[in-house]
Amino acid sequence: MKLKIVLIVLILFVTFFPSAHAQGNTVYVAKIDGMITGYTVDQFDRYISEAEKANASAIIIELNTPGGRADAMQEIVMRIQNAKVPVIIYVYPSGGMAASAGTYIALGSHLIAMAPGTVIGACRPILGYGANGSIVEAPAKIVNFYITYLRELAEMSGRNATLAEQFITEDRSVTSQEALEYGVIEVVATDVNDLLQKTDGMETKIPVKGKGKVVLNFKDARVVYLKPSFKDTVVKYITDPTIAYILLNLGFIGIIFGFLTPGWHVPETAGAIMLVLGLIGLGYFGYSSAGLLLIVLAMIFFIAEALTPTFGLFTVAGTITFILGGIMLFGSGGGEYLVSGAIYEMLRIVIIVMAILMGLFFAFGAAAAVKAHRRRPESGKEELIGAKGKVIQELNPEGMIRVHGELWKALSKDGSRIPAGEKVRIVEIKGLTLIVEKEGD
Q: What's this model's pTM, rounded to 2 decimal places?
């Protein structure tokens, strides 16, 4: 009896131990690409939770970001430092970056790796876009807070705190090789396989929750890639403030154009979809309600110009209001931002170009469309009056003529005979019969 129990235990051990070992020596890989927003917090949490459920050896986050919202960054750092598996931030691919908010996230992780050709740093906090078109710098107390915060992240992981501080005070950025030499990161790797080989046997820079510092064991590890969902892909693009802004304005154009020229329904339908996507994207990134109200006011000016032309008065007012609204839209309405200044430089160009295009569209295109729509439509048989045709069957006084490629029953106006081949002009329509006269009469 005891022998049977021992055999059963051995069978169960042999059956389940290999799978448990394989599961424990699994590395998850996920990708975060784009702006750091409230949605990015959900992505990090979802990916890390998947790795925790599988009791993975680690999760590698391939990160490529120009930065984003400061509050979202702090939530991500807290999630990483409370993870039950090691979280490795891998700045990837070549040409990518961990700028601004991405720098904080990297320094808060258990291990940092970078691909050749990537950069990290430049993470001074800003408050958005000012009414004069310039970037609004954060006040000293906010800057000092983030200096202390970033230094603490670096010091607790034994990384170069002095260089970390310079990322803020001097807007400094470094390449992957420089970051390795200065002790900001741990590994430079060309791809995930290279990363696994180089980090095998390394100890995490900060403790893993419930485990302390962990020595990584990636020998013969099974790599599981977590694919982004369709929603992840869509949100990645619409949370880019430039794309969200363009979608917002195209949405306004579609809806307004649809209402000015009713009957087709396509412009307002497409416009509504783009408007909602733009608002969702701006909601994740953060925006000022005052700026949105100014854009709506600009649209009212443009509509007024299309309906009641004022020789440019409403167009000028709309263009100016539109530019101010676009600039204020990205003002200090969403807290602090940790984002590359290049994002706002691009926004400035897009706002001005969109304002000019909108003014021209409503001053000329929309006004012309409204006039055309108000014109009495000519359709059906009525448009045949005045048209010319050719006699196919002699009119004596009735016969057949060809008009616009179609055969019609025709009647000579004065009852005269008109031979085949003659050209005639339609002067009246009675039912399905065309009343004609000889061309030249």
A: 0.72
